[in-house]
Amino acid sequence: MVGKDASVLTISTVGPLRGSVTTFGALVGSGFRRYTTYRQATIAGTFTNVVFGYLRCYVLLAVAASTVGGRPGGYAPDQLVTYVWLGQGLLSVVMLWGWAELAERIRTGDVAADLLRPVAPLTAYLAADLGRAAHGMLTRFIPPVVVGALCFPMRMPTRWQTVPLFLVSVLIAVVVSFGCRYLVNATAYWLQDARGPILLWTLGAGVLGGLYFPLRLLPESVAVTLWLATPLPSILQTPLDVAAERDGPALQLGLVALQLFWAVVLLVLAAVVQKRAERRLVVQGG
């Protein structure tokens, strides 16, 4: 197109693997470029995250000051600072809330067009979400962390493996969050209107995911049960504990491995649900 910066996704004929990788990468890039257009929303969201970072940080530091030994849940004050500010930065990266695109397309019937495309809906939405997360990591993660480091005594990594393990944990957390959001949205295939499940997800994800307070502040039996029985702590609690060096290297690695387990389970479950939903649409003549 003359005067337009247009591009067309093409699948390589050299080989199916190379073609799949090329297409997936193009979809990731498309997801990244899509969110670069929301400049005002990015600035406003970042400012809001910084404001709430101050509030949460002072609350948790007050809890630490009133706790015998000054280590609530085993966190030193500088670890709590790291937990809060990295959590505010990661909030838009893992995207706990605000995604109802699949549910809306199911409600309007536009999902039929998705099913006709050469890339499966689950793969396409996952690639786009990874692109969105990459944009959030560059624009919404760094500013709150910088503000927190300048204004509070933040804990810096003391082990060489902390930073790479944290980055791997964040990547897996994005996939876990996507799997949960995809399954919640997919309920619209049966309910037609997924606002109820999405509302329940919004209410529960922040509390059980470790956003509002570290789950280690709960009784140990409750925290362990949440970690093992649900994927929610793998979204925020695990990467934040890795960054704060709350645990030893072995336990850190174990928590990331548990994250990976939940990521695989959720993607497989989402694929099964998608297949059943497509069969349901065919039977109904949709």
TrEMBL record:
Carries keyword Transmembrane helix?
A: yes
Q: From what organism does this protein derive?
A: Actinoplanes awajinensis subsp. mycoplanecinus
Q: Which parts of the chain span the membrane according to its record?
A: 43-68, 80-100, 163-184, 196-215, 252-273
By what name is this protein known?
A: ABC transporter permease
Tell me the superkingdom of the source.
Bacteria
InterPro entries, alphabetically? ABC-2_transporter-like
Q: Which UniProt keywords apply?
A: Membrane, Transmembrane, Transmembrane helix
Keyword Membrane belongs to the record:
yes
